[in-house]
Each structure stands twice: as structure tokens, then as C-alpha cells.
Amino acid sequence: MPNDHTASHALMHAFRQLRHIQWGGRQQIDGCTRSETMMLLCVRRCMGSSPSGLKASDLSGFLRVTMPTVSQMVNVLAARGLLERSPDPKDRRIVRIKLTAEGERLTLETEAAMHRGIQELTEHLGIQRTQQLIETLEDIYKYYNDGSPNTTPPCEANPTLNPPK
């Protein structure tokens, strides 16, 4: 049994390895960077309860990036026909951002591929080890984020943006 010092180094090494693996369940949308893919998936997830679209400030908060970064990514994704901007029906000063039909199609395909990858991992690990992994990851999350104000997942910070479950 390794001592505490050796175990902590082994754990740090294991965490570093996770950064370098090619996740089968972490798919990018063709022609998009990982950041753009994350934005599209965030818009899709949050649109369930906000069909008129999201404000750029909402995306900035959910993705924890600056407003100029959001604006740049929205411009690129709108030019590719994946996002569209429209005025807010209640306040025309506000611009709403939502997926186009093509953006919806690509995010659905990407989510399906991600689910297949996770299902394959679950089959590889088996039910018992998968459950242990879930519990361990939840414990790690709680340990590092206990009491932190920035731990709310996207769309849960604003209940009006929570998609239906």
C-alpha cells in the first residue's frame, strides 16, 4: 500500500492523464472548435425553456467567458448558419441567440455520438465500476466546489432557462 505522499502523486498523475486522452464521448461538431461546439451545445440545452433564445450575457456567464469572446463566436457560428440572432419580442433592445435548423441537427448528432461514447465506456467498466466512478467523481466535485459560488452548471443558475427534464 503506497504512503500518502506516493498516493497523492499517483492521483495527480492520473488527473494529468485524463487531460490527454481522446474522449470517445467528447465529440466536436465538424468545422467547429471545441469552444464553438460547447457554445452550440449550451444554446441547445438552454433553449428548452427559453425558445426565444439566449442573451449574450447569459452565454457569457454559462460558459465563463468574456462578452467579446461570446460575440466573436456568435459571429462565426452565425456566418456558418448554425446560430441566428433575433430581437427579443418583449424588449427590442435585447438580441436573442438561438440555433438554426442546421445548428439543431448538428447538436443532436453530436449529443447522440457523445451518448454512444459514454455507453461504450459504461459497458467497458461494467455497472459496479461505473457506479463507483460516478460516486467518486461526485465526491471530488463536492470536495473542490464545496461552498464555491461558481459551481452552478449552465442553465441551472437561472431557473427560467432550465430545459425540461
From TrEMBL:
- Provide the transmembrane region boundaries: none
PROSITE patterns named in the record: HTH_MARR_1 (PS01117), HTH_MARR_2 (PS50995)
- Ranges for domain HTH marR-type come to 4-142
Keywords, in A-Z order: DNA-binding, Transcription, Transcription regulation
Q: Record's superkingdom?
A: Bacteria
> Which Pfam family is one of those matched by this entry?
MarR
Could you tell me which residues belong to the region Disordered?
Answer: 145-165
| Stored InterPro entries | HTH_MarR-typ, Iron_dep_repressor, MarR/SlyA-like, Tscrpt_reg_MarR-type_CS, WH-like_DNA-bd_sf, WH_DNA-bd_sf
This chain belongs to the protein called: MarR family winged helix-turn-helix transcriptional regulator
Q: Which organism is it from?
A: Paenibacillus mendelii
